[in-house]
């Protein structure tokens, strides 16, 4: 079949693309409003864009005519935390996607325990196996809906004990969840290890 995107509205294209670009890692983001409300929301348009310094990107859309609270908070305070959630947190991740008014803290609403960060004021989630303290670096807007691609630098990594072996994260132990089309999520299936291929070193270390 063939589909001409110029014949589709934004919502139908979104459903199509989120069913094609799968599985997607989930950035579970805490951010702080100017009023001091700790916001929590998941974003599956998420990747890393630099290793030195470490930088991550999330795409934040709108809720109605306005941008989501996360975008406002990051641009206002320039600090936030990106978490990687595991299987036991799947329901909490999904429930945190409910759109509450900005004065409602999803963290408090879901009864999630937090811990202070070391280099930023935003709190991190105690239960998440990975938390990355981020500071805002750049924002680019794309498309008719002006989705905001927000890039931040990781200034501190927090990883659960036992996840890192010889400098590498044990993916099976991390047990990350991923997003697929609709209100559906995926877990790791079979992990296939192939032969190492030659690549030019990216740095001296």
Automatic annotation (TrEMBL):
Recorded superkingdom: Bacteria
Cofactor(s) this protein cannot do without: FMN
Keywords: Flavoprotein, FMN
InterPro entries in UniProt: Flavin_Rdtase-like_dom (IPR002563), Split_barrel_FMN-bd (IPR012349)
Domain Flavin reductase like: 19-171
PANTHER family: FLAVIN REDUCTASE LIKE DOMAIN-CONTAINING PROTEIN, FLAVOPROTEIN OXYGENASE
Protein family: Belongs to the flavoredoxin family.
Name recorded for this polypeptide: Flavin reductase family protein
Source organism of this protein record: Bradyrhizobium campsiandrae
């Amino acid at each position: 079949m063939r589909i001409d995107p110029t014949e589709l509205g934004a919502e139908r294209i979104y459903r199509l693309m989120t069913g094609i670009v799968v599985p997607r890692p989930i950035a579970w983001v805490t951010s702080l409003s100017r009023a001091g409300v700790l916001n929590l929301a998941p974003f599956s348009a998420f990747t890393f864009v630099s290793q030195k310094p470490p930088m991550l990107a999330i795409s934040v859309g709108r809720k109605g005519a306005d941008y989501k609270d996360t975008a406002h908070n990051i641009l206002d305070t320039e600090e936030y935390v990106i978490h990687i959630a595991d299987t036991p947190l799947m329901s909490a991740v999904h429930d945190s996607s409910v759109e509450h008014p900005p004065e409602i803290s999803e963290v408090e609403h879901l009864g999630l325990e937090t811990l202070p960060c070391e280099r930023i004021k935003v709190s991190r989630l105690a239960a998440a196996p990975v938390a990355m303290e981020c500071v805002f670096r750049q924002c680019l807007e794309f498309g008719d809906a002006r989705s905001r691609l927000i890039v931040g630098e990781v200034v501190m990594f927090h990883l659960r004990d036992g996840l890192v072996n010889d400098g590498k994260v044990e993916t099976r132990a991390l047990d990350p969840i991923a997003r697929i089309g609709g209100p559906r999520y995926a877990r790791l299936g079979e992990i296939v290890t192939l032969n190492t291929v030659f690549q030019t070193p990216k740095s001296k270390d």
